[in-house]
Amino acid sequence: MFAHKLQNLPQTSIRRILILRTAPVPQVRLAVEQLKHAYPEAQFSVLGRQLNHSLFAGMQKFEITRPWLNLSGYRPFHRAVEAGDFDMAVMCLNGDSWVGYEQVSRVMKRIPAREKLVAGYTMEWYAWRHDIFQEGSWLARRAISVLETVLLPLVYLGVMAMPSGRKYMPAGQGRSAPGYDR
Amino acid sequence: MKVLHVCSFYRPLGGAEKLLFSVLNLLESNGVENVIVAPKAQSSGPTGQRKEYFVDFLEYPFSRSSLFSSVWTNRKLVAALREIIRAESPDVIHLHNQQNPFVYWACLRSGVPMVRNVHDPRLYCPTNWRLLPDNSLCPHPFGRACITEGCVKPTRNDARHLLTTFVNRQLSFRNTTLIIESRESYEMALQNGYKDEQLHLIPNCTSVPSLQTALENKKRHKHQGQNTLLFVGRASYEKGLHFLIHALPKVRNDFKLYILTAGDYYRQKIEPLVERLNLSSRVEVRFDTSYEETAKFYSMADAVIVPSIWFETFCLIGIEAYSHATPVIATRTGGIKDWCVDGETGFLVDIFDEDALAARIDDLLDDPDTRAKLGVNGFLRATELYSEQTYFQRLHALYKQVMDNGNTDSYRLPRLARRPV
């Protein structure tokens, strides 16, 4: 499947935009700047983790605590996002590759926005479609997904069966950590 | 001799990449042919200095991809790698900073002897930095404690990460010599089930000018009337910037701290802390500084601070500071203990001991003679132990050794899971 590259951002009236923060701040900043330029009147909201940054100041924040945005991380904000009545949702890519965004794309699928876009790594814009983040036939995906569901608990059991052995902690290093904000 | 280098980052980034480019130049100036395999990325294009292949998905996001997606996508990568290895017929494959088990597997299948740099504990730590959830150092080897200590949670992403670490670790017992950078890394590799005969200690290197040049540069770049401290590196938690910033209000002397870093983390976590502690006028940050510009800061600094709070595998910053005749104040952890001799080339403090760190900074700022003496001692230590020529000799000897041994399976596991000692 190939993504459809957009020549320009949609020329429609956009009042509310939801950004999915799935890339580092500099990458998201480029996307936000272009959007602000194209839609100067639009209000921005952001969904993702680590939103304590000046870029997101003034935006409505839906901050997830999980390491990566997926459906279960999105669930607590589902109703608020629906109520947000967004005209546009944008997911940002952090690399040339489209791989690894399947879960984010599932979240995109659930967001009720009129326009759904992908901000590419090279700052090109694409129309979002879930199938560009998936490969292979449905049957093969389903079969391996079931296999993974069985396999992953076995990984836990396998590692649990490995004794932890001797500890290693030279003098001066085993101090308990102060409560720095990591 | 032809060496195929597989690296996840083929551009100036951190210490590992700086070492990579030094090694490539060293090998080439001594007649070794290098071939590069690196990921296709906007930021790392061909340099034209050597034969280079750019492939998709070398750095694959396993934790956020389904098993299907991982297998489906990486099968193309494996085929591409096998084709490259067949076409190039290298004598040795050298893996740098590479965490994709499919890459490892493809290289192993080729039967070419392999060496692999160990820049961090990722081979056996699913959280990468060997830090427990409470941010203290983890004393455990890979195994049950990864789950019981709460490092790996019962989520799909964590399970994928655990699986990746598990497979990487299992593969790394086979036909690979691990290049270990420090004695403490060596100890931790032994603790994690690796055997002595698989480990090869080669400390990192840096280019060292003459002492006269280093001292002249120091004089030229020194800001008269200003005490200058320097931190170089990523601002992430394990590098200890929190620790350093918290210690600064306890320093008696006036000073200016320069932080040379990159990435988001500084703005998110450190900048608010600097403001909260009213240090904004005494701390200056520079992003994405070039290697050349960084060298000037090393010369300018009265002391370089290395406040790492993890099992630092080596930390190139220290010996780079030494090569500019600048003393270092560092934490007593990991590979730092190999190059920093307490009281001779700098000072060591225990991790998280803010009072001791502040006191040692004052000790150096109070006494220019001690500063100069420690700086020269550090320079001599870098010249003696960490020169590029010494590194080349050690690495070249290792390549020859693994070529002579050929494709042995001497490290092959007797069972699926090799037990840590």
What percentage of residues of chain A falls in helices of 4 or more residues?
A: 25-40%
What's the architecture of chain A in CATH terms?
3-Layer(aba) Sandwich
| Count of extended strands of chain A | 7
Assigned CATH class of the largest domain in chain B: Alpha Beta
Give the percentage of residues in beta strands of chain B. Answer: 15-25%
Provide a brief overview of the structure:
Chain A is α/β, with parallel strands linked by helices and 182 residues long. Chain A has 5 helices and 7 strands.
List keywords for this structure.
heterodimer; A: alpha/beta; 7-stranded mixed β-sheet; 31% helix; globular; B: 421 residues; alpha/beta; Rossmann fold; 2 domains; 7-stranded parallel β-sheet; disordered C terminus
List the helices and strands and how they pair.
The complex is a heterodimer of chains A (about 180) and B (about 425).
Chain A: E1 4-6, E2 16-21, H1 25-38, E3 43-48, E4 60-63, H2 71-74, H3 78-84, E5 88-92, H4 102-110, E6 115-119, E7 125-127, H5 138-160
Parallel strand pairs in A: 2-3, 2-5, 3-4, 5-6
Antiparallel strand pairs in A: 1-7, 6-7
Chain B: E1 2-7, H1 15-29, E2 33-39, E3 51-55, H2 67-88, E4 92-96, H3 101-110, E5 114-118, H4 145-148, H5 156-172, E6 176-180, H6 183-191, E7 199-201, H7 211-221, E8 228-232, H8 241-247, E9 256-261, H9 265-276, E10 283-287, H10 291-300, E11 303-306, H11 316-323, E12 328-331, H12 336-339, E13 346-349, H13 354-366, H14 368-385, H15 388-405
Parallel strand pairs in B: 1-2, 1-4, 2-3, 4-5, 5-6, 6-7, 8-9, 8-11, 9-10, 11-12, 12-13
Helix pairs in contact in B: 1-15, 2-3, 3-5, 7-10, 8-9, 8-13, 11-14
